[in-house]
């Protein structure tokens, strides 16, 4: 359900008068016009012949016995009220207080069962409700977290559609006892359950429904009635005008809250932010197909329309000139091809984490990670490796990971000698053109001046132990690799 659902609780405000009950339904229907919400009307059922113990029947000194008996309606009268609800387009909801009332709910085709707070842990009643095929809304006033845990577990294990209502059983509820923050707590504790707000504050207050909606409630319940010369309204039930004010407040809150998604910036927002950003300006001439890197630009205010800004400039975003560019001019989006690599880098890091985990290989914290993409990230699945530098002093230790199907192109070193120890997976190596196969535990030494390349059929992690690594000591036999000035991506925070 995407729209908020508003449930109007008649309780005994029909006063035992069917015509008055119908008038309440129609008046509230009129109050709902123009609001894009879902609406429901709720009754309460008690089988008074069995619900009240014989020894208490007729007692006027017991408040609710007197109230229930004075406002008793027959089954046919409730059917008249249900017909009026359906005629007005309301969903039908009913709170049963005993098992016989659940039978009547099923017989009358009422759509939703509501469990009152006083019945939340009435397990005989819950057992009967659980045998129905109806969605369930349950109020939680006065309940402990353990009570609610047990009820949620009871219904979810029976695959029931459940809504929990934050509720305070004070009539009316003073502001300091509303505890609307509990809605957020319920959402966190029960993420698989829809959360709502059953409200008993003074009906002229609209702030609570706005706060409840902002906290994530999607179902709202309020007692309603229709004051007349014959029937007064209690202190916590809303009249039609108050209902309309309540709905208007909820509508305004929904507009103010907006979406939980991250929408694109509005045109006005984007223009405002762009006007305050630094633009990218060229500091030297750039030839067609040349990479526009940090050596060719500066960042300065203001940015003109269409100009690339400092916010769009990152190590994961590379710019290739599509035409000759002169110094001093702004760098426009139309001047360059833009290659975005963030998703590819993230995928590579995720894959190497999995390799390390599969090999049960512990990596020292805060180790730098180097992604070698000899022919660019677009061909990283074919050529490349991922390297973790553990130490690089007079001696050097690195962990090298290659993904399934990757080849490291042929290279040689004049300054360093290195030894490989395979830790996980299989590795194929060529040393001066001679092929070797290596498995976990194998040790291979590559002497200075020996041309070497390697391939991983199914993913591999191996340790490289060597003398000091020098950045200018990796000599590739393919000159295209040396010509690629952007063949490495360095990451510090990746574990």
Give the helices and strands, then pairings.
Elements: E1 5-9, H1 18-31, E2 38-45, H2 48-51, H3 63-70, H4 75-87, E3 91-96, H5 99-108, E4 112-115, H6 123-130, E5 136-139, H7 145-156, E6 162-167, H8 182-189, E7 194-199, H9 207-214, E8 219-223, H10 240-257, H11 267-274, E9 279-282, E10 297-300, E11 317-321, E12 336-340, H12 342-358, E13 368-372, E14 385-392, E15 395-402, E16 407-412, E17 418-425, E18 427-431, E19 434-438, E20 443-446, E21 452-455, E22 460-467, E23 475-476, H13 479-483, E24 488-491
Parallel strand pairs: 1-2, 1-8, 2-3, 3-4, 4-5, 5-6, 6-7, 7-8
Antiparallel strand pairs: 9-10, 11-12, 13-14, 13-24, 14-15, 15-22, 16-21, 16-23, 17-20, 17-22, 18-19, 18-21
Helix pairs in contact: 1-4, 1-10, 9-10
Which of globular, elongated, flat, extended, rod-shaped describes the shape? elongated
Residues in helix, %: 25-40%
Strands, count: 24
User: How many helix segments?
Assistant: 13
Which sequence of strands runs across the widest sheet?
A: 1-2-3-4-5-6-7-8
Oligomeric state: single chain
Task: Report the sheet with the most strands, covering strand number, pairing sense and barrel closure.
Answer: 8 strands, parallel, barrel
């Amino acid at each position: 359900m995407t729209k908020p659902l508003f449930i109007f609780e008649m309780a005994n405000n029909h006063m035992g008068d069917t015509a008055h009950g119908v008038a309440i339904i129609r008046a509230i229907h009129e109050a709902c016009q123009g609001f894009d919400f879902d609406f429901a009307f709720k009754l309460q059922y008690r089988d008074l012949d069995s619900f009240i113990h014989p020894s208490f029947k007729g007692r006027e000194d017991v408040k609710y016995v007197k109230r229930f008996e004075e406002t008793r309606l027959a089954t046919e009268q409730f059917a008249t009220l249900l017909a009026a609800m359906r005629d007005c387009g309301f969903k039908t909801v009913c709170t049963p207080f005993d098992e016989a009332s659940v039978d009547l709910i099923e017989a009358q085709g009422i759509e939703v069962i509501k469990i009152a707070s006083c019945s939340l842990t009435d397990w005989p009643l819950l057992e009967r409700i659980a045998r129905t095929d109806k969605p369930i809304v349950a109020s939680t006033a006065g309940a402990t977290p353990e009570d609610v845990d047990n009820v949620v577990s009871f219904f979810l294990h029976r695959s029931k559609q459940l809504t929990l209502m934050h509720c305070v059983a004070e009539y009316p509820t003073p502001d300091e006892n509303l505890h609307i923050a509990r809605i957020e707590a319920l959402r966190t504790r029960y993420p698989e359950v829809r959360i709502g707000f059953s409200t008993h504050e003074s009906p002229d207050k609209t702030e609570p429904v706005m706060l409840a909606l902002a906290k994530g409630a999607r179902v709202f319940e309020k007692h309603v009635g229709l004051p007349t010369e014959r029937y007064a309204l209690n202190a916590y039930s809303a009249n039609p005008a108050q209902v309309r004010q309540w709905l208007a407040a909820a509508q305004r809150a929904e507009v103010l809250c907006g979406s939980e998604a991250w929408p694109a910036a509005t045109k006005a927002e984007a223009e405002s932010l762009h006007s305050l950003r630094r633009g990218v300006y060229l500091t030297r001439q750039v030839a067609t197909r040349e990479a526009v890197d940090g050596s060719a630009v500066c960042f300065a205010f203001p940015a003109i329309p269409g100009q690339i800004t400092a916010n769009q400039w990152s190590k994961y975003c590379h710019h290739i000139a599509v035409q000759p560019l002169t110094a001093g001019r702004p760098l426009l989006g139309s001047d360059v091809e833009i290659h975005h690599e963030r998703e590819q880098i993230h995928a590579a890091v995720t894959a190497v984490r999995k390799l390390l985990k599969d090999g049960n290989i512990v990596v020292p914290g805060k180790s730098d990670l180097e992604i070698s993409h000899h022919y660019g990230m677009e061909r990283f699945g074919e050529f490349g490796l991922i390297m973790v530098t553990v130490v690089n002093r007079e001696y050097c230790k690195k962990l090298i990971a290659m993904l399934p199907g990757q080849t490291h192109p042929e290279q040689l070193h004049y300054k360093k000698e290195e030894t490989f120890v395979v830790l996980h997976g299989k590795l194929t190596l060529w040393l001066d053109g001679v092929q070797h196969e290596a498995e976990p535990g194998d040790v291979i030494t590559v002497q200075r001046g020996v041309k070497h390349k390697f391939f991983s059929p199914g993913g591999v992690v191996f340790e490289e132990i060597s003398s000091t690594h020098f950045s200018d000591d990796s000599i590739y036999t393919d000159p295209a690799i040396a010509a690629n000035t952007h063949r490495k991506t360095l990451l510090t925070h990746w574990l």
